[in-house]
Amino acid sequence: MRKSYGIEPQLEHCGCVLDLYGHAGRLDEALNFINNMPMKPHAGAWGALLNASRIYKNMEIAELASRKIVEPEAKNHGTYVLLCNIYADSKLWDGVSNVRLTMKAKGVRKLPGCSVLEVDGRRRQVSFSI
């Protein structure tokens, strides 16, 4: 970007590259990219890596990415829930239990989800919790 177009990469650009690596299953390259970013990786960058590690069932990278997200954002319930889901998908029930205990100890609660549905031409908001 710098050489060809004279554009300085921003966090959003790096997040897009990480998302592309992740969706392509190139998790090691994504991790290498995040470790060599020209700026400090933000939670969104680590989140892209966490999501990719869920898709490709890479527990080692999932645990690393979740730690990196939780360090600055200890109350980020989404990270804990995603990590729980990764453990559950791999049938690692002790991991699920440990994450839930950590959430409880830190006072982190999962917020209910919300969807808007149209029923008989009328919009209805539905809250749910998993």
Automatic annotation (TrEMBL):
GO molecular function: RNA binding
One biological process term in Gene Ontology: RNA modification
Top-level taxon of origin: Eukaryota
Gene3D superfamilies: Tetratricopeptide repeat domain
Pfam families (alphabetical): E_motif
InterPro entries given in the database record: E_motif, PPR_At4g14850-like_plant, TPR-like_helical_dom_sf
Designated name of the protein: Pentatricopeptide repeat-containing protein
Species assigned in the record: Malus baccata (Siberian crab apple)
Species classification: Eukaryota, Viridiplantae, Streptophyta, Embryophyta, Tracheophyta
